[in-house]
Write a structure and sequence with these properties.
Radius of gyration: 18 Å
Oligomer: single chain
Shape: globular
Structural class: mainly alpha
Distance between the termini: 10 Å
Length: 189
Amino acid sequence: MTPTAVLHSEWIKIRSVRPLYGSLVAVLATMLAVTVLALGTVGQEQAERAGAEPVFDVGLVTSFTAFLVGQLFLGEHAIGLGHPGALRAAVGGGIYLALMALFAAGLTALLRSAVAVLSLLIPFLLIVPFVFTDIATAVAQYLPDRAGQLVIHQNPEGSLGPWSGLAVTAAWAAVALLAGWWAVRRRDA
């Protein structure tokens, strides 16, 4: 079967599975709720401090929709998409989330288990970066989540820039997707 035929059949499966649409709506609703909760107190406190990054508070969690909704809760500290770094954070945040989803999809194809992927990604994304940050900051900046999140900072720190950090995350996603493709092709051949 050609890759195009496989992608077409998967697209049909995705479109025909009704719970998928509910899941997408639930993800959007959760994303907005987390943004509202995070910005309710933390965002205003961060914005009041000198040198604060109000773009980071919004862009860390979501993309355009959450950015715009989140600005409603920042009151006098709200910024617009014309603010330096805001548009990049909103666009880059969406790209970052897509790349992380592709990274997870590649790992899922490789391991053939969503539970195994969650068991790997949760510690890898939530624990390992903090351990590496204490040990070697130079190594931690090349992890997929840390590198990709640079795009949502107003003033990113480190040797990677915002777009090059996103390129590092894209490389991680590409490697995971290629490994998943190879594993599926080898197993199912």
